[in-house]
């Protein structure tokens, strides 16, 4: 058992998952959202860790890998659901929930060695949050209502 103890490759993958999720968490923290700098890297690391921790058990069983993916998707979706709040006539937290879901996908992608997919997911999520947030604020009925009241 100890002959198979190879911490290096796993540490590198976990670090990559952490680093790819960090900008997304930084954005959510900067925007003062319910989940932020600590949550997003942990979701990515956990998703990656579930894949890598079980990879030796699933080498010849693609169905087992599919079930693991399903479990991670469901679990991360549950966490994201906790970020969604209904306030008066508005729903808040959907971008944070979707960001958590993407972060889980980043971790899974790194866990299976699809680093290119993980990088693209991280890039698209971060750019979407950075670039589209100002437009979203301008289009939000709450923002328009506040501007009229101010």
Fill in the keyword field for this structure:
about 150 residues; mainly alpha; 6 helices; 2 strands; about 5% strand; MgtC/SapB/SrpB/YhiD_fam
Please describe what this structure looks like.
The chain is mainly alpha-helical and 150 residues long. The protein has one domain (2-149). It is 76% helix and 4% strand. The chain has helices spanning 7-30, 39-54, 62-83, 94-111, 115-139, 141-149, and strands at 85-87, 90-92. Helix 2 (39-54) runs antiparallel to helix 3.
The poorly predicted ranges are 143-150
Query: How does the major sheet shape up?
Result: 2 strands, antiparallel
Q: End-to-end distance, in Å?
A: 67 Å
**Biggest sheet, spatial arrangement of strands:** 1-2
Order of helices and strands: HHHEEHHH
Q: Any idea what the shape is?
A: elongated
Q: Please give the number of β-strands.
A: 2
Number of domains: 1
Strand content: under 5%
Helix content: over 70%
Give the number of helices: 6
Average predicted confidence as pLDDT? 85
Radius of gyration equals 18 Å
Which structural class should the secondary elements be placed in?
Answer: mainly alpha
